[in-house]
Design a protein that fits this description.
CATH architecture of the largest domain: 3-Layer(aba) Sandwich
Number of domains: 2
Order of helices and strands: HEHEHEHH
Number of helices: 5
Structural class: alpha/beta
CATH class of the largest domain: Alpha Beta
Strand order of the largest sheet: 1-2-3
Low-confidence stretches: 116-124, 126-131
Mean pLDDT: 77
Strand content: 5-15%
Length: about 130
């Protein structure tokens, strides 16, 4: 009986913008983030401080979605970052270039964080590595 009841009256969502924990420092790739569920998810994650890459075929549509997301956020102090990444699932070469771009950005970010850590500590390894 409880199975029938739960199928007739669906429970509320367990994850909403009110109970989403802080996502600062986390990176997300949202495919289909220009409309529908993807757009709503991107909005939640952006409000929670995450760094989002909106991946899709159309740069114009993605830029419109980014502007829509940014305009819907009232508290910009805790908002994250939004960027567009070109991705077309019908052209596998874009998947490879997407991976290469993300890997390059990750390496640059890691190097930048390492340099900042060395600025604020007197770590012998940092001095020897020349960071």
């Amino acid at each position: 009986m409880s199975v029938i009841w739960s199928q007739m009256f669906l429970p509320g969502p367990t994850l909403t913008e009110q109970n989403l924990p802080n996502q600062k420092g986390k990176v997300f790739i949202v495919t289909g983030g220009v409309s529908g569920v993807g757009l709503e998810l991107a909005t939640f994650l952006f409000q929670a401080g995450g760094k989002l890459y909106i991946a899709g075929r159309s740069k114009d549509n993605a830029q419109q979605a980014i502007q829509l997301i940014k305009s819907s956020v009232h508290d910009t102090s805790s908002a994250g970052q939004l960027e567009y990444l070109p991705l077309d699932h019908s052209d596998l070469s874009t998947n490879q270039s997407l991976g290469q771009n993300l890997q390059k950005q990750r390496i640059e970010t890691r190097r930048s964080l390492e340099q900042r850590r060395c600025l604020f500590t007197s770590n012998r390894q940092c001095l020897e590595a020349g960071a």
